[in-house]
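Standup notes
- DV: blocked on the single-chain target, sequence here:
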Amino acid sequence: MFTMKKFLFKIFAVFTLAAGLVLAGSGMARAQFSRPVIVMKGCVLTVDQKPATVRLSIHETGAPDNDTSDEITTCAIQEITAGRANSQSGRYLLILKPDTKYWVHIEGTFVQSVDTLIQMPKTDKPLTIDQNFTVNWRQAPDPATLGANDAPAGKKE
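- DV (later): unblocked, structure below
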């Protein structure tokens, strides 16, 4: 019986050591990507510094050096990814590829749409970029001129 206690103690000791090694190794585990990515994050605020409730739509441009900020028609290329800015803070987060040009299309119910051309840097490791955007409020139609052309002509005397 004495040898049985020693045997059980050795098994318990080996099990405890193995469990300790597994737990110690799990603290060093990190997420890894097969290719480097760029985390683009920031805020979308209105001109009066209020959080904007918007959708950010990302469109990859054509070949490198093929698009300029004057060629806004390239925004019609298929959407690559999209995200929404937090309505309370205006914060957003997007995952993009390095060494790539993108059109960022920002739209919301109460703000004017914005298209911005951005170039992601070339990198061999994950990178975080802070990019803030400012949007203008949509202009409400002037009630004095609303329907002015649709009104019937007044009677002339």
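- Follow-up: The chain has a mean pLDDT of 80.
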